[in-house]
Amino acid sequence: MTECLFQNVPSHMSLILGVTDGRMWHSLADVLILLATAIVLGTIAEQLRQSAILGYIAAGTLVGPNLLGWVSDRQSIFDLAELGVALLLFAIGLEFSLPRLRRLGRIPLLAGIFQILFTLLAGLAVSILLGFSVSEALAIGATIALSSTACVVRMLNDRAELDAPHGRTALGILLVQDMAVIPLMLIITALVGKGTAADITVQLSVSLTLAVLFVAVFYGLFNYVLPRLLELSSLRRNRDFPILLAMVMAAGSAWAAHRLGLSPALGAFVAGVLLAISPFATQIRSDVQPLKTVLVTLFFAAVGMFGDLNWVVDHLALVLATVAAIVLGKMLITFGVTWFCGQPWQFALGTGLCLAQVGEFSFVLATVARGTTANPGILSESTFRLLVSTTIATLLLTPYLIQLAPAAANLIRKLGRRNQNIEPPQHAIQAIELESSSETDSDLILILGFGPAGQRVAGELLQVGLKKIVVIDLNHENLQIAAQYGLRSQLGDATQIEVLEHAGLYRSRLVITTLPSTTVCRQIIYLVRQLSPGTALYVRCRYHLHHWQLLAAGADVVVDEEEHVGECLAKHVLESPQLQYLLKATRKSDSPDDSHH
User: Which SUPFAM superfamilies does this one have (predicted)?
Assistant: First the structure.
């Protein structure tokens, strides 16, 4: 009946009436099933004190085509979820300005090159010894050479270890691996039969040229065009525009890198690094956070969809042996090359534990190497399934290995000092001191809003010698005033978790909110009490009506403007000459009565 009713409706009218072929809604249903299952299993994993990533991957395996079959279009989901990895790297790049990236040093660059080379050669040699052909062995070596940027960076960031010595080195090696995806992809494509050595050389030259062009264009865009755009009054008045602009920049940088034949994740990271030097970096990172969270969760669920539990059960001994060989081999290789390149051996061990898994881009390499039904590649179906199963298994192990990394480094360092009484290298001592000082520096004062009220508070604090003050404001002029005061300032919306965390909420003793909006103040009180319950919270209240609401929300001290205005007015009135005249006149008029009595 419905088909008869709408069969003569024009196509443009069908769109207006909402009559579609249902493909979009079917894809949305797949995404919703994945996310809902990820929420349930991720929560269970957290309740068991495990990483939520384990729950996300398990969710994909459970509802994927190889088990329950509720979601079958895994390639489309994986393509969408790749944007989540790009947004994750974009957000991380916003934390890494060019000077900070240079401080990573030469160790990650050299270690990354050696790690890829030695892991590839080790995989090639072992595979040939096991009877694989040279082409298939090379594809296996290239696949296991890569580690998981999404999983490792997410875990290190959540554990606040991205700035630890092993975290910085791991990040540098992961970036080198992302750059290596392009040549590895070209090599495997040539082995499948779609290219030659000359084609690979030409493609590498073109990719390098396009990478330089990409950096130059985005550098000019972010340093000359974007600042003027973000200072427009219309963008400051409407919060929707900066959010939309942030999404365009994040997704646009990944798309531009993909169109140029580069790694989208690496392109997004480079764009983030180029943007990190601007004062808008923190707020932009906060604006892309919701979409990044959804897509990264979808990514890990999509990874789980590639798993086939029935095949794993049938080949359990083979899978376990392969997982053990890869984890142990990659850990030892990464440990060896980072130690050889100059990193202290206890931190080299932590880096090795962080990078002992097979990465998400390995799915792409393995898929290309397998080929299609019409055009078979160099990987057999059983080898492809083994690589996919091994990759998922190592990703499931990654949270435990990353949790083990700092503990293992500290234990071995203590044992080394006790047994050998050897002082660690000076740069290792400096790194440890830097970490400890950053963790114990808990004397910050956050001032949220730097209008006249915030400026008066800051002036009084500076007069008594308190200088560790961080100002958060969305008004550029107010931030310029804060700079004149000599204060650290940050452009951002104080109702965003990312903004408060970046400003140092966890290390602050006092948060002073001078913003006039009661709704905004309540949101900030909720976030501060949720994230840092022990921090003292002083809040401005514009109207007496809301005084008790702010106290009930969790503020320690509420400064009531109307009450203070009344007190100030009364004080000035009592000191005024007019009131003194009235008092004298009143006393004179009352004196006859007083004497009579």
Answer: NAD(P)-binding Rossmann-fold domains (SSF51735)
Q: Residue 575 and residue 569: Cα distance in Å, rounded?
A: 10
Cα 48–chain centre separation: 24
Look at residue 433 and tell me whether its pLDDT is greater than 60. no
Chain center to CA of 199: 37
Q: What are phi and psi of 369, to 5 degrees?
A: -65, -30
Q: Residue 597 has which token pair?
A: 């009595």
Mean pLDDT of the chain, nearest integer: 80
| Structural domain boundaries enclosing 376 | 22-413
Q: Flag whether 293 is in a domain.
A: yes
Token pair, residue 91, equals 């957000």
| Dihedral sign for Cα atoms in the order 228, 232, 237, 241 | negative
Distance CA 133, CA 155 (A): 37
Count of domains observed in the chain: 2
Q: Of 326-330, 460-464, 585-589, where does mean pLDDT reach its minimum?
A: 585-589
Convert 149-208 into a string of H (helix), E (strand) and C (coil). HHHHHHHHHHCCCCCCHHHHHHHHHHHHHHHHHHHHHHHHHHHHHHCCHHHHHHHHHHHH
35 neighbors 298 (Cβ within 8 angstroms) = yes
CB 369 within 8 A of CB 143: yes
Rounded to the nearest 5 percent, the helix, strand and coil shares of the chain are 75, 5, 20
β-strand partners of 559: 540
Confirm whether 319 is domain-assigned: yes
Residue 565 CA to residue 228 CA, distance in Å, equals 40
Contact status, residue 71 vs residue 64, Cβ threshold 8 Å: yes
Q: In sequence order, what are the beta bridge partners of 557?
A: 538
The string of pLDDT tens digits covering residues 165-200 is 788 889 889 888 887 877 887 788 777 766 666 776
Residue 171: name the closest of 219, 261, 107, 218 by CA.
107
93 forms bridges with which residues in the sheet? none
* CA proximity to 521, closest of 541, 507, 493: 541
Are 407 and 529 in the same domain?
A: no
Residues 353-386 have pLDDT tens digits of 999 999 877 877 887 788 766 677 888 889 988 9
Run of H or E including 232: none
Structure tokens at 517: 């909006």
Type and span of the H or E element at 509: strand 508-513
Q: Return left, alpha or beta for 475; rule: phi > 0 is left, psi -120 to 50 is alpha, else beta.
A: beta
Q: How confident is the model at residue 597 (pLDDT cuts 50, 70, 90)?
A: very low
Residue 148 and residue 362: Cα distance in Å, rounded? 9
Residues 451 and 394 in one domain: no
Which contiguous run of DSSP H or E holds residue 404? helix 381-420
Maximum distance among all Cα pairs of the chain, rounded to whole angstroms: 125
User: What's the one-letter identity of residue 7?
Assistant: Q
Q: Which of 20, 123, 179, 559 is nearest to 369 (CA)?
A: 123
pLDDT at position 430 is 40
Mean pLDDT of 383-398: 90
> Is the same domain home to 362 and 508?
no
Which of 28, 114, 137 is closest to 73 using CA atoms? Answer: 28
CA 393, 396, 398, 400 torsion: positive or negative? negative
Q: Residue 494 in contact with residue 449, Cβ under 8 Å? A: yes
pLDDT of 465 strictly over 90: no
Question: Are 394 and 450 contained in the same domain?
Answer: no
Is 13 within the bounds of a domain?
no
Instruction: Determine the Cα–Cα distance for residues 363 and 367; give it in Å rounded to an integer.
Output: 6
